[in-house]
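Hi,

I'm pasting everything inline rather than attaching a file, because the server keeps stripping attachments. The sequence lines come first, and each chain or strand is labelled.
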Amino acid sequence: MRLTGMLLFVAFITAYGNGVAQRVTISGKAFTLKQVFTIIEKQTGYVVLTNNELSAQSKTFPVSATDMPLKTFLDKLSGDQSLKYIIQDKTIVLSRNTSPSPNTPTIMILAPEKPSLSGQLLDEKTREPVIGVTIRMKHSGQGTTSDASGRFFLRDLTEEAVLSISSVGYAPLEVPYKKVAALPAGDTYAANGIRIFKLNTGGIVIYLARSTSNLDESVVVAYGTTTQRFNTGSVVSVKAEEIEKQPVSNVLAALEGHVAGLFISQSNGAPGSQMKISIREQQSITSGKLPLFIIDGVPFVETPINLVGGSTSQASGATGYVDPMNSINPADIESISVLKDGDATAIYGSRGANGVVLITTKKGKAGDTRFDVNAYTGAGRVTNMVPMMNLQQYLAMRHAAFANDNVQPDHSNAPDLTLWDTTRGTDFLKKYIGNTAYQTEVTGALSGGSPYLRYRFSNTWRHESTVFPGDWGYNRYASHLSVDNTSRNGKFSVTATAMYTKESNNQAASDLTSTVVKLSPDYPVYNNDGTLNWTGGFTNPESYLIQSSKFKSDNLLANAALRYTIIPGLNAKVSIGYNKISQSTENYQPKASLNPNSGSGQSMASYSSNYIESYIVEPQLDYTRALGRGRLNVLLGGTWQQSNYAQPYYITASGFSNDRLMSSWVAASTILFKSSSFTEYKYVSAFGRLNYVLNDRYLFNFTGRRDGSSRFGPGRQFGNFGSVGAGWIFSSEPWMKTTLPWLSYGKIRGSYGTIGNDQIQDYGYLSTYGNTFYSYNGAGIYPVRSANPDYGWESSRKVDIALEIGLLKDHILFTASWFSSRTGNQLVNIPLSSQSGFSSYTGNMPALLQSSGWEFELKTTNVSLQQFSWNSSFNITFPRNKLLSFPGLSSTAYAYVFIVGEPIGNDNGFHYTGLKDGIATVEDLNKDGKFTQGLHQTMNGDYNMIARASPDFYGGFSNTFRYGKFQLDVFMQFAKQTKQDFRGATRGFPGALANQDADIIKDGFKPTVTVGGPAANAYQNYYLYSDGVYSNAAFVRLKNVNLSYELPASWAAAAKLKSAGAFIRAQNLFTITSYFGFDPETGGSVLPPLKQIAAGIHCSL
Amino acid sequence: MKKQLSIYTYILLLAGTVITSCKKLIEIDAPADQLVTSSVFLDTLTADAALTGMYSRAANPNPGTDMGTATSMFNSMSADETYCYIYNFYDDFTNNALTPQIYYVDALWGTLYNNIFTANSVITGLSGSPLPEGYKTRCTAEAKFMRALSYFYLVNEFGAAPLVMSTDVHNTTRQPRDSANIVYDQIEKDLTEAQQVLPATLDLYGGKRIRATTWAATALLARVYLYRGKWQQAENMATTVINNPGLFRMKEDLSQVFLANSEEGILQFVNGITSSWLANNFVPFAASPTPKFVLKDGLYTAFETGDKRKDNWIGIKTYGGVDYPYPAKYRYMSGVGAVEYMQVLRLSEQYLIRAEARMRQQHFTDAAADINIVRARAGLSQTTATDAPSLITAIEKERRTEFFCEWGQRWLDLKRWPGIANTAVTRADEVLSTLKGTMWQGTDAFYPIPQAQINANLNLSQNPGY
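And the predicted assembly:
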């Protein structure tokens, strides 16, 4: 089907092709040649290549043919119209026959005064037309762009003209016209990586080679693509190969540490759990801090959907809030672009203030049908357990505590000493989170197609079990279908993607970690009669294993993009998208699992259903043309989006006659609680972008957007946003090339933009009444929201300045950037005191918050030999945020937490000054003899800042070694930060009826049993609120190691495979940290990220 | 030129369509599960729902603890009535070691102010409503009663408190504390006004005593006058209520006092959807081996021999061979159906209010007669008290055994009474320092203003001792 060899190509020219299978039917009295050509193209799928003279011919003539073979028809047409033709590949090249036909008078062709040139641009490898390429004459600066079939026409050439051809993703070319003109028809010109074929017509075919430099790799940006070289904004792209190496279920976990300015941390180690994500620091005090996620043009809501309806009791078992991104299969992702600065994000207007993450899914590639299989399986464990007291240490602490307080242990205050077997201790951590979790993933993908119709259909199944005892597991089935269709003439194309993911997560009712750390080592889990033991005030961990949380999710994401080329360079596009994520969570609490002290003993269950549904329509007009010495691209478009957030029901029921009937509330005798909620969000905007590249070295980019959002009250719904970006590729200056020859690439870029944030609750401007949960001899309503119709947009002004440098033929690429974002008119949930009847209301605050920092990226090709290569990549980010001003701060509730001139989101607390007689002491900062909460600086309390919310710095370092068919990837992640430690998270005071970490008595704390006594009071009210429970959470983690082996092509061929290989992947192999707790990333006492090792194979049929 | 024109035509067309239709494109409907406030007080059906909502939220706030349950539980521990057997997180109450960070204190503060806000919303909503005057007056009076009841507990639990009278959150959030006297004056004003216009029958509420009547306002007014030392007025109010045998009667069968529609109830709240929160909190579940809340010895032994209240209102849980008494006035747990309603105001209190008021006015015989009505119902002989000191002791003992673990009656009494041996201190100082030693300090009489509230409203001052 595809002709790749030059020999074959030449053979066709002489052999007149074999297009016999194609047939033509045509009938009419007055056709122009051009009309006939169009019909041929339409009916046969062949491309007709001809010169301007023929296609401009206005003379009409009658034609008639019925189901005539193409060759016969062409013979006839050539004879009648004195033409000659050749067929090469799928192209018919027609030209005037120089020997005049006796039937028609000779037409005088006026030779143009200056030569002209027609040609076609084809990709060297795929032979597909390359669209939208600028072809300029170097001296005059005039030029044109290639049309939908890659064709172009240049007038007024001079002998000395040099054609300069540049396109995204292709190596730039310079072609001397003289050489082309001199080239005989049917010959090929090849020099300096340029390959040009001259047709009999005088036209040329130019083969463009893909650029090998990282700088010229295609990068997906807002509403289009560009390259790092020509980009004026700050965009980092992560490719599929980087994602595929990591055996994780959530693609965000695979991004950790890979992108400068993108900070991601896991909230716990259970499958499906929520990821915390921020791009370039917190921009907003309380409004949404999440970046805008767009998957194939469809906005994706990254807020956990089980938050819809607002009740926290709906969280899904051990997983907690379920990250919606978990329903996107990483294996279907082609690339992820992280848009960071104003230039890259301003076109997203009111939604882009926190940065934008563009996810593009895989598409089919033209070629033979191939079937790829990728399968791996592996296991994971908790690597770092917090050392807890053993039985002896624990009993010693308890006895000392009773002795200290002169209290007699009895059944009530000390079942651990008086009732339980004090000779047998259990390591509860090992028992409950010390098991092995398994994972398996299998992907099968079918892809292929022609240049006109390409498809990819992939299916992935994934299973993950947990480290908790029992048969818990997460299953995901993901199906992805992508179809691209381009019309024969290339004018019309459709890209359609549909993605469907089904998840089911059957989890224990809660993360056992924080429960089991507290258990006394002699705590008997069961009573003698086999029932659960509930004495001692502990939550029995077995109850969480009897209870279960069943989570189900369906995610359908569909998108279609239609493009029509109105005239060359002008495309009309419309993108239509739909996304619906539905989740249901059912929590079962059978009778046997319930604490008889605190419940009726009736089995209970809760059922919730949530969904988010979004529609988006985005019409666009895109115009590209050569202008002066540069390339101009103009984009105009609009967006209409609607999202519905709904919780059709949330029900808690009890009193099931039989625990097996709990899957339906119909079997319940009592409905304890019921609610439902529905909200609507609409969004509309118009946007435009103007991009101009002058002389391939001066870059300009302007964007503007006007947005309207239903989240604001009447009169406040619309806002304007925009940006200016510019870049100068100084290495392309001729004088630079001579002065600094080792500098292969150098660019300075900068941008300024204003972007908004509307991540606030819907209907915030309306004062409303809602239904009461309980009937009071009838249904009641009560005020649920106070109104503030006056709030408006929160907008950020972003500045970004960067220097990009490539040395030694781009073997070393270095980027340094400084960013700053100032967000004023802060849209916050202004806290209210309870006396007002509400806890907060939505409003603007005059606070000005600055997020700024430095980002450095270094990519090096250390060794690049045939057999061995070594590439490294390093990035580091130093983020800072600072409250620049806050007029009237002291009269707001924020006075308690904020200091002007300091970062926000800090943890504030006492300064721990050590122990006095075993009792914790803290500093009396304001010297008033009392220890009061509240910042020293603003409220004359005794608090100071003790930890910043964000790390001092973070980053990643990755190395890829390739030796023959082996490849080894090693990725390290690091961060410097301070976090609350294990003690701060578990909170019980030493001596009470609960286990403690092994060091607490060695540290000198005096054990006590009296709540409210001096030791307990000091521990709980001062120590736990001090920097004494904060720990250095800096870490270096060997995040990912991937060793793969590719079978030699000959072996694979022998096995009738296109390719095959095997790999071993490890995640979180080890962590170097001095943090006191399970893990410095998740912190506290939650299940830490697991160390996972997986092995697998892939092959292509 | 022609081509250029067509581009611009497209652009203009597109831009034109987008801009002209923008406003319509982002119009959304009001939330399907909520009502816009301005539409609530336009018809009586919806306004009734708002009134029902006010009671429902007062009886069953979510989340948090309703004021009856919170005061009954927390105050019983702060005073000398109970301790919690199974959790140590309530020990801060038992040990009078509360800090401003304790969640429960913030929840109590929030619950009370939420009631006040809801009541204020009803009052504000009705003031601009086109509904009939009579309807508006009656509903406004109900809201005023609810406001007074909530403020009564605020001043008694926390002392001085911001007197919030409007729904303008921007201003009310910053209000500083007003003295207890100012708050009490408003309580009297609200109750007096409500008393004038509230219905005197239960007809309006289907014979149930679950919404405010003139009698409820009068009964609460009696208590307020008593607390403020207005003896004559307290006596008058109590008498007004007592002289209604058609509506209110002392329930002879003590096991029926706390049932739904009990004739002893002047006002009852419908708790939950099945039964009372108090039963769920105080009574150990059948399957539970351990007790939950245990009566302290002093209270248990205060019951005289033959006191039927001891048999009817106290349960016993045996654990490890020991009998633990627990409060069991409410005993029907969830899953049984709404058998019990929470008694907010009941008749026997009116007798003891009047007894105290009469005693303070030196009407010793009348005072003893009132005490005897309560004693007789409990199966006890007539009191032997005849003079002020003996009557003070008799009233204290009777209130202690009649109202234990009920809306913090004991806690409030201890704090308002002067000491018996030393009138310069409060009765709480005498009783609780004997019981709890140095854990008790005079400043523990008022709970701390929750730190979260001080953080949110810098104009709030903290109570002394915290």
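The first strand of chain B starts at residue 34 and ends at 36.

If the labels don't parse on your end, tell me and I'll reformat.
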